[in-house]
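Today's session is about reading a structure prediction critically. Students often jump straight to the picture, but the first step is always the sequence itself: look for stretches that repeat, for charged clusters, for runs of hydrophobic residues. Only then move on to the predicted structure, which in these notes is written as discrete structure tokens rather than atom positions. Here is the chain we will use throughout the hour.
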Amino acid sequence: MRLPVPGPRDVLSALERGGDQVEALIGAVPRALALLERAETLLDGAQAAVGRVREVTEAANVVVVRVGAVVDDAELAVGRVNTLTDSLEPSLTKLQPTLETLADTTHPDEVAALVRLVDHLPALTDQVERDVLPVLTTLGSVAPDLHDLLNVSRELNEILGKIPGIGRLKKRVEEDDDIETPR
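Below is the predicted structure for this chain, in token form.
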């Protein structure tokens, strides 16, 4: 659209036409100045809008770079998960029937008991190492000592059986034991 601003030819043409035209031309000067002022205001607004668009574009570029880094990290994680899943698939396929049976037959109380047992394992391990294992290592030497002790006990019993009156005492003790412990 052509702006109604008079050019140099219009000015010369108006001078030729006369005074009315000169007055109209002079009257158009304030309108032309107002139009020029409005155009400058529009240009300032357009420049401000372009500046804001530039800021938004730069901020969007920063976000795009960050999203790109997140996508790269996610691709690495997916690759690791795929590798792990591929390596575990044969074992999990073999274990699937066992896991299904375990899931079907395990009661929550049993799981709770197993958790409690696992909680006690460190203390139980310490006690086994501290108390049970040393006793187990000495069992090899205890057996002959027990055998000797049993032999001495038999010999002592035979000696006591030869003392006069012990037979009756022994008989009375056996009868008392039979009365106290019914069979």
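Discussion point for the tutorial: The chain has a mean pLDDT of 85.
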